[in-house]
Amino acid sequence: xxxxxxxxxxxxxxxxxxxxxxxxxxxGRRVPAYxxxxxxxxxxxxxxxxPVAARLPAERELAAALAxxxxxxxxxxxxxxxxxxxxxxxxxxxxxxxxxxxxxxxxGLEPLPPxxxxxxxxxxxxxxxxxxxxxxxxxxxxxADLPPYAHTHGDYPAGLPALRQALADRYTAxxxxxxxxxxxxxxxxxGAAAAICRLMAPRGERIAVDHPSYANILQxxxxxxxRLVPVAMADGLAGWDLPAWRQTLRxxxxxxxxxxxxxxxPTGALATEDQRRDLVAAARAAxxxxxxxxxxxxLALDPALAAEPPxxxxxxxxxxxxxxxxxxxxxxxxxxxxxxWVRATPDVIRSLIAARAHADLxxxxxxxxxxxxxxxxxxxxxxxxxxxxxxxxxxxxxxxAVREHLPDWEFTVPHxxxxxxARTGGLSGSRIAEAGERLGVRVPSGPRFGVDGAFExxxxxxxxxxxxxxxxxxxxxxxxxxxxxxxxxIEAEAPRTFVA
Amino acid sequence: xxxxxxxxxxxxxxxxxxxxxxxxxxxGRRVPAYxxxxxxxxxxxxxxxxPVAARLPAERELAAALAxxxxxxxxxxxxxxxxxxxxxxxxxxxxxxxxxxxxxxxxGLEPLPPxxxxxxxxxxxxxxxxxxxxxxxxxxxxxADLPPYAHTHGDYPAGLPALRQALADRYTAxxxxxxxxxxxxxxxxxGAAAAICRLMAPRGERIAVDHPSYANILQxxxxxxxRLVPVAMADGLAGWDLPAWRQTLRxxxxxxxxxxxxxxxPTGALATEDQRRDLVAAARAAxxxxxxxxxxxxLALDPALAAEPPxxxxxxxxxxxxxxxxxxxxxxxxxxxxxxWVRATPDVIRSLIAARAHADLxxxxxxxxxxxxxxxxxxxxxxxxxxxxxxxxxxxxxxxAVREHLPDWEFTVPHxxxxxxARTGGLSGSRIAEAGERLGVRVPSGPRFGVDGAFExxxxxxxxxxxxxxxxxxxxxxxxxxxxxxxxxIEAEAPRTFVA
Lengths: 500, 500
Hints:
Two copies of one chain form a homodimer. Chain A is 43% helix and 12% strand.
């Protein structure tokens, strides 16, 4: 049964291959061009930067785009077929695959199922254990509140009234007066982002994004057919480069902009109130919707910042028609809870709800009751306090371990969030990720957070381990880096660089 | 802030308007052409057959497609603007809207939130209250099983191992040997369908569908950019017209076919084992994936049929590579639970999981534990027995009430499922739905279940009410039908038919 999810064009594939080459600053021995090309494609598939079952360009087109001979491409495709990374059928073309029996493509971002980790240290997803006893207490409270809901059909396209009210009250308490009609409960922040993209930026429209930005949302937008317009983040934690934002919003006229202003994923930057005000003004002037993802907003790790966080971006949008806010319980509380939400004008909320019947119908009722119970019982604050303590401990532990074992990796320690964005000392983050996979540490490489192969020289490290495990993770990453530096990352017997 | 979700082309809008006209067999007074056109568009928006914020064609194009004067279209658009159903901006075009303060567009399919029903009898969504005490027991069991999971990050892209195993065992017990590697847990059947469409039928590809078919899935496929190829169901409960299926699969060469073989939504038809075998053979011969939605499979309402149901469609696919099965707890158990699943080859499952990180990440853990607990405790069978009894009582009650109050409505009583597909005696189902909305009964019209405006002469009635409420629902529908027959459905003061 033939299947493919999408086609990868020759210029796109050439760009992705080219970005690998750029970052390959190591001094390994040369290998044949076809072999280097095959390895490059294999790496892109294993990393998930080309989807499984994606159609690859015809040999002639790729040869032209790469400026190599068609023989080189044909030999590379043949090598990929032999290794099980490509299937071809006469007349139908070639599409990517993963050899039977292999693990799933290690995108390094979707989580390794906990039961499958074995001895692998999983630095893939930025998610922590639940802040017990609050998860259990919340579900107990929800169960006590369930009976009247069990007598209904259970389908609440806008979300449970009790939760819409609790979320509205929380925004109001944070300085953004909000009515329940301005809230839609979604199935996670992903459900919120998908609904907003459908409404605000239909296929072919432009979306301006922080660069780097949250990988899963970038991919969701690509899947939705958006054209991503990256706006580079300033170095370190300086965050948003307002002249660049104004320039991009004016020149590219995107329909929407997506920004993680609170403990940005992956850099950890936190927008100042001035940056917030200026971002809103720039978006309003350009007629773009400013979508602000607050998934990390509750994760201030420095106590002073937790006590006095900056006001929400929506507070700088008096008319209320420019900013659309996305929130989620999955980062603040637990990823096993799939509840997110949108705050916007009642009109936008109505449009989002109207399109919901053919998206996901509604969100789980008991989970909504659990969040509503937590917020009513002040359990939310208690739970995130536990989570903050844990993330802070992990951050400090990881930072110390990386500084010790990878002294040439550069990063700025963020004041909140769940991730460290590390420059990998001139080595390819993709190759470190691949080598790490074999050495027992899973880590997502930089390009997952970029557009068109950017950030090859980075990896993202989440605050999910501490103590000896953090040390062990850093040790394994250091071993992976040594392997890459020696040019031996791909196959121990055939170190190589790309020479096509 | 300008926004639109999609564009409605002139030929498409002309077709939708034309289908309304065809079914308007009533003898109302004539109204001006512009007014009739405006009313037609308004009805399409209110029904959700044109989305809110959809761009309408330019006046000239629509005039050409409808073969009316441009003045007529201009006057119709002006009337729509006055009523708040259209917004226009010079140079940017016109897009649909809903007047401020109005209820959401009454698609008649997304559920009315229980708190908002008031005196409205909601026959919109085919969903029943939870089969207590089993919902509560399942959540109590899940809560007891939660602690080890709360210590993980909670993100299980394939689903919890315990639930994958329980679902595999259930298929094996139904005669289709299945390994856990063949199961992916999804967020409802909608999540399953969305993932399968992304993989099997990318944008622009054809999908063959039962005609009529489940409205939300048809709309999901349209949103995903699929080209729907309808295959007419045979009359009554005869179900699948195999020569038509073979012919369509051969001629249109769709990438996949979507079939509800067990208590088809909306007709209630049940495929015989011969039909199942032949459908699989036809799909295999045409190289199409056969996606079988079993959401209703547990809802045999006749006890003999419940005791001895036909074997699953997958049982007629020995190689296992043609059929992809979708299941869900939302119809069998409760719509407030958002758990569905896919059964396919391990390869297809791996591809679906790989794409999940940028769709919904994972499904709620506690809900998965609840379903696994129910299946381990035989609670699943007990719960669906309760649900069957309730649906059977509702069916019999509704059938009696409709026969009494709407004697010229035609239907065949199905042996299972949750819906009655009723021919509305030559009146427009859309207009009955609109009139019903004002008379206190919400019901989805036929065209929601069809492609390009088909089934204007039908409504779908779900088995969700009984006794005096069923009688009241039928009485209100009869009043709505009388209103439509008198030509007064749209505005009491201006009965009309479309005369352009």
